[in-house]
Amino acid sequence: MGGMAETWIRLLGPPRIESLGAAPPQPRGRKAWAVLAYLALQAEGTGRSRTAALLFPDAADPLGALRWNLSELRRTLEGVKIAGDPLRLDVRPPWRCDAVEAVDAGSGPGLDPRTVNGQLLEGLSFADCPVFDSWLADQRFRLENVAESMLYEAALAALASSDPGAAAELASLALHRDPFHADCNAVLVKALVALGEHRRAREHVTKCGNLYRHELGLPLPAEVRRALYDAAPEADAEMPATTATVQSYLDAGGASLSAGAVDRGLDQLRLAVVLAQRTADRHLLAKSLVALSGALIHQAGGRGAEVADFLHRALQAEGPDGASRTAAAAYRELGFLSVQRGVPDRAAGWLDRAMQAAKEFPDEQARILGIQGMLASDTARYEDAVTALTESGRLAKEVRNRRQQAFSEALLGRVRLLRGELDQAAHSLDRARDWIAAEHWTAFEPLVAGLRGGTYLAAGRLEEAAALIDRSWVLAELAGDHCYMVLAAGAEARLFLAHGDLAAAEHWIDRGLEPKPWYLWYSAQLLDTAAEVAIASRSPRVSEFVERLAELAGRSGMREFVVRAQSHRAVLGDEAAAQAVPWLAKGIDNPALEAFLAQRHGIAARGQ
Fold first, then answer.
1. Which helix (H) or strand (E) holds 82?
2. Between β-strands 88-90 and 81-83, what pairing exists: parallel, antiparallel or unpaired?
3. Is 238 exposed, middle or buried (0-12, 13-18, 19+ CB in 10 A)?
4. N or C: which end of the chain has fewer CB within 10 A?
């Protein structure tokens, strides 16, 4: 930056412009700050007319009011470009913006998560702009989620780089935001153990257990207990720690997992890690850690701090700039974990890094594209999802990875089903089912069976729907897969809703609420169904379901579920929500959503 002092646009916390050793001019009026925040979080730009209508709905000349506020921003943000139609905010050095950098993991020199404090536009309210107020509430949820994730990830990175003091500090800051964050509690315990502060670690575990029991009526999370007591397996001290022995354990672990002996396979991979740590080969250690992480995630349902710690340690061993298959896989798995935890901004950053590291590896590119398509689908960017999943399937076919073909084709079927393209959805899901059968990949079958049943349900073919949805539930329950259990329970509830059996539908909602899935998109889908069932049955629980859906969707960037939550609120009499529905839906290309809103509210969502 040529020695220029940084000037910060602080939108998190009380909004202000900051510059070291100076008192820069500040924008006048809350609407100027509102325009600035809105443009900062619209990376692709936003139309002038849309922005004017959003922020100045009662002005005699909305575009004139917008022009005045833009001139006010240009006066105070000299060097920051705000121009065009669609309008774009271009923040370049020496300027920095905390909200922009928080949601864009690849921007600038990196944002210190310790400095991310306070709500977006804290202290300002916009009751006179109900649609903007709704948007602001969702963005506040989103940025709070991002801030927590930044602290958690930074704590893991500090732990991996042998700085447990910083890890403890960062995890503690995250726990000030959310004391029930099980993974942050686990990281804090790990950091305290690494510091040799075993008494503090035990005291924190006791405190955490009491908090969960008294406040939530739940036992101590298993990952917190493991962080205190679990130790690495012991390898025979006489066994030579060589590339050959480590590779032998990696091969044996892979064979055990393929044969369905998951516990044995995990033990063998853990021993590979222990032996690799005794060698001087950092790449071998990274490879072993990634292999163990992948097995924990995809075979044992591991999603917590233990797995993320292994992945950060792998990246530390491999080196931050390595363009290798191992680095690509580690970044991809971190992206996958972020997708499932509902932190799309962080997920996008990890997946971008994964793709950069995988330039020479088409098999890895196929996997990354599959997760990118999953992320795009979750955030209602359906055309992007179709593009990514189609390319993933093409590459998977080239490298003869039939399981990846099945995964990408199944998610493509999900996109088609969500958009109401039932014939195309059925075609994709039937292809995925054939590949799953050929691969004997029964663990993935509950998802595809449930989605295929959903296509029959949407077409009104209830008997055929029931056969597949029932199969999805049984397979998911037998496997103990919480994600697929929630998916199948929601499908059962919609099936009974279609039959008009509201008592049975409510029963399945309750069954779906029991498991705690890692993949939060399924939780949002179930809450959406729960709201529909509760509205139909006039249940007193409806407000609870709607508010839980609104918060989850807002935090996780699930734009279609944000719209659906507002639609439920509107049905319950919330006039501000009714105004927000067509506005929020306009940016989502989904004919099925348009049809739902038109039927429920008599509006054409994209025509507003």
1. strand 81-83
2. antiparallel
3. exposed
4. N
Tell me the C-alpha distance between 317 and 561, whole Å: 40
CATH number of 7-128: 1.10.10.10
CA distance 601 to 574: 13
Q: Which residue has the tokens 């105004």?
A: 579
CB atoms within 10 A of CB 263: 10
Distance CA 607, CA 507 (A): 38
Confirm if 132 and 580 have CB atoms less than 8 A apart.
no
- For 143-229, give the CATH class: mainly alpha
Nearest alpha carbon to residue 577 among 597, 591, 563 = 563
User: Which residues pair with residue 9 across a beta bridge?
Assistant: 17, 97
d(CA 43, CA 103): 10
Report the pLDDT value the prediction gives residue 322, as an integer from 0 to 100.
Answer: 62
Pairwise CA distance, residues 115 & 282, whole Å: 33
How far is Cα 23 from Cα 19, in angstroms, rounded to an integer? Answer: 7
Nearest alpha-carbon partner for 266 in 242, 283, 246, 249: 249
Is it true that the peptide bond before 86 is cis, omega within 30 degrees of 0?
yes
CATH class of 243-319: mainly alpha
Considering the entire predicted model, what is its pTM? Answer: 0.93
Contact (CB, 8 A) for 175 and 155: no
Contact between 63 and 49 under an 8 Å Cβ cutoff? The reply is yes
The answer to whether the bond into 94 is cis (omega within 30° of 0) is yes
Is 98 buried (19+), middle (13-18) or exposed (0-12) by CB count in 10 A? buried
Residue range 441-497, pLDDT digits in tens? 999 999 999 999 999 999 999 999 999 999 999 999 999 999 999 999 999 999 999
CB of 272 closer than 8 Å to CB of 293: no
Alpha-carbon gap, residue 337 to 149, rounded angstroms: 11
pLDDT in tens, 125-159: 999 999 999 999 999 999 999 999 999 999 999 99
